[in-house]
Amino acid sequence: QVQLEESGGGLVQAGDSLRLSCIASGRTVSTYAMSWFRQAPGKEREFVAAISWSGYSTWYADSVKGRFTTSRDNAKNTVYLQMNSLTTEDTAVYYCTAETAEYDHTLYIQKAYYGYWGQGTQVTVSS
């Protein structure tokens, strides 16, 4: 079993930056694809970013491309989401996910693919 715990959320102003962290425990996730999803009030949970097990490949939702960067440190069993130029549209609960890596990378943007989820961390961006 893999346990995931997010941190780093908070209340910021539009234009500010935040860095979310997600630390995994229970087993090493060095062979797992990991991703970030978010859910705003009254909306569906949506894909934000994903990273391959090696960290060499990343994928982003169009809405965050160029502003958000995901990275990982397998030695620390941790994945990060650097969020810059935040807008009010980024307000949501952000979830970290993990699943064993697959060759079909198109799976990585699908929330149904991931078996392990964190509890989420709230990000609120004020105007």
Distance between the termini: 40 Å
Query: Which class do the helix and strand fractions yield?
Result: mainly beta
Let me know the average pLDDT: 96
- SSE order, as H and E? EEEEEEEEEEE
The tally of beta strands, per DSSP, is 11
Shape: globular
The share of residues in helices is under 10%
Q: What is the beta-strand fraction?
A: over 45%
| Parts with pLDDT < 50 across at least 5 consecutive residues | none
Radius of gyration: 13 Å
Helical run tally? 0
Written account of the structure:
This protein starts with a strand and ends with a strand. It is an all-beta fold. The chain is built from no helices and eleven strands. Helix content is 0%, strand content 50%.
